[in-house]
Amino acid sequence: MISKCIFPVAGYGTRFLPATKSQPKEMLPIVNKPLVQYGVEEAMEAGLTDIGFVTGRGKRAIADHFDISYELEHQIQGTGKEAYLDTIREVIDKCTFTYTRQNEMKGLGHAILTAKKMVGEQAFGVILADDLCICEEDEGVMAQMVRLYKQFRCSIVAVMEVPSDEIYRYGVIAGESIKDDLYRVSDMVEKPEPKDAPSNLAIIGRYILTPDIFEIIERTPPGANGEMQITDALLTQAREGAVMAYKFHGKRFDCGSVDGFVEATNYVYEHSYKKNGK
Is the per-residue pLDDT at 277 higher than 80? Predict the structure, then answer.
């Protein structure tokens, strides 16, 4: 029912300079696996195996990663090192990959609009690789949202509670509680001051969007910072139809910040890598 997932990966990653001067921030490793691979594996678990990357200049390493490396694989063939490639081989075998360029950085709404031809007339997922979500006791966040989409057939955003002193960094929702952890959105504000925030429920980088979002983005005027804000388009969609906000189960790390990246690395090392080497 949903097979496509879009990854906006055109950003420059300036908070990680000089490391990101010549490599995509999405290829920075959390222990021994690139950040973007965690997101693709989450999409794959949810049944979203048609992966679309909205890229920019200097992002060739992402395409190379999700491809066979004949020279490397020949060199380690028949050795114990082959096992290190098991996870990426599974991803390559099960997923297809499409790439398009976002020629100008005009916000997340513009990045999603750039993927219009890749998506077509169907609902689709969006994963921001900067947000690493770990769900040890449940299915992944995207799989949780796909399950909800099958019931409600409308756009869904993932939200989490954040402290008031961090609320200015997020899009924030207000809404009517439908059931535990699920809200029908009535308002959204992009990066509000704490006193202006409608709640403490902040949107993170997981979305399921219905295809009418493209037409809505096209007629939505530029918002904060003069960019096409997906939050503004989603608010229109909520008022004209329905958008759900889901307080997901799991742990999220903001790997777009150095602190969050280090926290994620330590967590994955302690809870996963030390146990099984993956």
Answer: no
CATH number of 4-276: 3.90.550.10
Give the integer Cα–Cα distance in Å for 42 and 49: 10
C-alpha 88/C-alpha 94 separation (Å) is 10
Q: How far is CA 115 from CA 59, 96, 125, 197, in A?
A: 16, 15, 11, 30
Per-residue b or e along 139-163, where b marks 16 or more CB atoms closer than 10 Å to that residue's CB = bbbbbbbbebbeebebbbbbbbebe
Return the closest-CA partner of residue 46 out of 121, 130, 158: 158
**Neighbouring C-alpha atoms within 13 Å toward the C-beta of 184:** 10
Structural domain boundaries of the chain?
4-276
Q: Are 177 and 189 in contact (CB under 8 A)?
A: no
Q: With contact defined as beta carbons under 8 Å apart, do 265 and 141 qualify?
A: no
Taking CB atoms within 8 Å and a gap of at least 24, the contacts of 268-276 are 268/30, 268/31, 268/134, 269/31, 271/134, 271/136, 272/31, 273/31, 273/32
| Token pair in block for residue 122 | 């169907």
The secondary element (H helix, E strand) that includes residue 73 is helix 70-76
pTM metric for this prediction: 0.93
pLDDT score at 52: 97
Q: Which residues of 39-72 are buried (b: 16+ CB within 10 A; e: fewer)?
A: bbbbbbbbebbbbbbbbbeebeebeebbeeeeee
Q: How many CA atoms lie within 13 A of 135 on its CB side?
A: 18
Which of 168, 160, 107 is closest to 135 using CA atoms?
Answer: 160
DSSP of 261-278, one letter per residue?
A: HHHHHHHHIIIIIHHH--
pLDDT at 61: 93
How far is residue 234's CA from residue 216's CA, in Å, rounded to a whole number? 8
pLDDT classification of 278: cutoffs 50, 70, 90 = low
